[in-house]
Write a structure and sequence with these properties.
The protein has helices at about 20-35, 40-50, 55-60, 60-80, 85-95, 100-105, 110-140, 145-175, 180, 185-195, 200-210, 225-235, 235-265, 270-295, 300-320, 325-355, 360-385, 390-410, and strands spanning about 420-425, 425-430. With about 425 residues, it is mainly alpha-helical.
């Protein structure tokens, strides 16, 4: 009697070769983004209207909690990949996120909202980090910009769509609990899909074996060495890390400030939801062409110009504030387009300059600094808004973003040209990027 065994398909790098798993991971990240999108429109107003908070810094405390927790989890996630498989961390992230929509919907005090954002930060740090890493693992070096663009597009389009929906639900049914309970669907779907997706350890091993630049014996792959290398010692990684930090600083600032600024100038919840939804939707959708474009023209042009476009978005918000809906929409468009130019390109730039042996730690370090920007943005916004007013806070965001763009222009060297790499039975062609 003969036993028939099914041959395991060969492991290959490439988007086309791994389209099924890649697509599944895109859908997972839709759920990741949608969960955090629950908070974009309603939570700052829950703080002021439901719990009676009068200090802007107190209102923005939920963003500080989210940003700090997500940043630290991002950093830990890179190190944890040395001990655990990416799929295990992805599933863990979703399990931790299960209570979030229920706490947002029924929290008896503001402290519960802040605590929910600690859980949300861990969920986002693990789940989003793993979807990024797994997509980069699958596609190999030649299509990193497109891969990160698709990943971030899925997540942030979901953020924007959920912010838009919660704005309309809040208008129809009140700030709680209906807008928050749609998050139950995202948690259930995200966890179910995370259990189905396959791990990418074999793809990482294959890229390591075929990498054109062998790991130097002096190249320390540990978290501490990679943290200092990514944060400061490596010029291009430093430039990308500071740009990511400021990018999310201004996002954290708009998260807290824009709902208060535009309601103060007469807009209703549905209009604020439109503004808060339009920004991440454009940010999300725009990352597909910008990520692909960065594979062709290089990372630096998109990073520098994108930061300057974001700065212009803050200027528009104030310059047209006597017509608040127009100001909000035009600002959202500029911020969305500018962020779409920057977001996937920065991740791809980090990946370009990091060896596969320490890439997960480099991405974790970058994402640590990037998401520390949420906490810094909320802290800066709270202090400035309480002392100088909301308008001064927006001016500060414009100046910081423009300065960051100029620093990126000075520090970042564009990615080294990729070379053709033979990967087992398939060949990945990187081509030269000038």
């Amino acid at each position: 009697m003969t036993t028939t065994t099914t041959a395991t398909p060969p492991v290959r790098l490439g988007l086309r070769e791994n389209w099924a798993q890649f697509t599944l991971l895109v859908v997972v990240n839709v759920c990741v983004g949608a969960l955090v999108g629950l908070e974009r429109t309603t939570v700052p107003l829950i703080g002021t209207d439901v719990f009676g908070l009068t200090s802007d810094l107190a209102v923005f405390s939920f963003i500080i909690a989210f940003g700090l927790t997500k940043a630290l989890t991002n950093l830990a996630a890179g190190a944890l990949t040395a001990r655990f498989r990416r799929k295990q961390l992805l599933v863990t992230g979703w399990l931790i996120g299960v209570p979030v929509p229920f706490v947002l919907a029924y929290a008896p005090s503001w402290g519960w909202i802040v605590a929910a954002n600690v859980l949300l930060g861990i969920n986002q740090g693990l789940a989003w980090s793993m979807t990024v890493n797994m997509k980069i693992d699958l596609v190999g070096p030649a299509r990193r910009g497109l891969a990160t663009g698709l990943n971030e597009a899925a997540g942030y389009t979901a953020v924007g769509a959920t912010a838009l929906v919660t704005g309309y639900l809040g208008t129809a049914y009140g700030l709680r609990p209906v807008p928050e309970l749609i998050g139950v669907v995202f948690v259930v779907a995200g966890l179910a899909l995370a259990l189905v997706v396959r791990d990418t350890a074999a793809h990482v091993a294959l890229e390591l074996a075929q990498h054109p630049k062998p790991l130097s014996s002096e190249e320390n792959t540990g978290l501490a060495a990679t943290f200092t290398r990514t944060s400061w010692r490596h010029r291009s990684l430093r430039g990308a890390s500071q740009a990511g930090f400021v990018n999310n600083l201004n996002d954290g600032l708009t998260w807290g400030v824009f709902p208060l600024l535009f309601t103060d100038h007469g807009l209703g919840l549905a209009a604020v939801g439109l503004i808060k939804g339009l920004y991440p939707i454009l940010w999300g959708i725009g990352q597909i062409p910008t990520g692909h474009l960065s594979d062709r023209i290089g990372r630096k042009p998109l990073i520098v110009s994108g930061m300057l476009v974001q700065a212009a978005g803050f200027v528009l918000a104030l310059a047209l504030l006597d017509r608040p809906l127009l100001a909000g929409i035009l600002s959202a468009v500029a911020l969305g387009i500018g962020t779409a130019m920057v977001y996937p390109t920065l991740i791809a730039s980090i990946s370009d300059h990091a060896h596969p042996a320490w890439r997960a730690n480099a991405l974790g370090t970058y994402r640590f600094w990037r998401d520390m920007g949420y906490a810094a943005g909320a802290l800066v916004a709270g202090v400035l808004a309480d002392t100088l007013g909301l308008n001064a806070t927006v001016v500060a965001a414009a100046v910081l973003t423009a300065v960051s763009g100029l620093a990126a222009a000075y520090w970042i060297k564009d990615r080294p040209a990729t070379t053709s790499v033979t990967i087992g039975p398939a060949t990945t062609h990187g081509g030269s990027h000038k």
